[in-house]
Structure prediction request, 256 residues.
Amino acid sequence: MKNAQEKKMDGLAEAIVPTRNLNLLYIILDCIFLAVLVGLLVWKKRYSTTLFGLFGGVLYTVVDFGGFYLMSHTRTVYIGGVLQGAGGTFAVLLWMSMSYGFTNFVFIWTMVAKDKLAKYWVFLILMWWMICPSISELGGEATITTSRTTGAYHGWMGVALVVSYLILIVILLKRDPQKAFVNVLYLCLIGVFVQFGWEFSLLVNGIRPMNGASLRTLIVNSCLETNLGMPAIYLIYRLWGRRFNEDLSRAGGEGE
Prediction:
């Protein structure tokens, strides 16, 4: 018979607790990549895409540090085996949130906008997600560990996803019932695939440890976490597009 502590540990092993183990070189390389990506976007006058990517990074930082760390206390960061306080945690989460927030939102915006250069942006992002962990192995063992428990809020995230898609479907059915299903399905596929892309790369590269809950974490996070924001992102894109072109010139005027 297992005691209470053993049962608790077994439960945690099967729970969805996204964890990442990485080193300082990973962070440095990723920051360089983000700077290069921003430079390429600005060079090609993808100003709206760049602004939306930065918005995504700020939003992820607020949610991760403000929501998961300060409010729900579900986020932890260890450096060299030492649990970090607010300062160290914020520094790591700022990088991580800006990284995945920016790349996620750039990926989504270019796909929703059907940017003619979307294939290049998506290729660069997916390639980097898959290759960066391998290059970072040159920096030695992983001394930085981040984790968060998700059971406390995945239920509410599911509710938010259902409600947001219902609202979007009603809006689309009123405006263009012939294309409503196609648009909703396209948005859902983007929302699932973008998170699956980096969740999968983390798992296969060993950044996210393999355990009994790995497959469940991959599937549930991919279906929920980015996807729940897709209806709002689509409506933001439509409202923004009425006022501005991609190069921030006024819509209806000259520009892209």
About this structure: The beta strands are 19-22, 75-79, 82-83, 144-148. The chain is about 70% helix and 5% strand. The chain has one domain: 15-243. The longest helix spans residues 86-112.
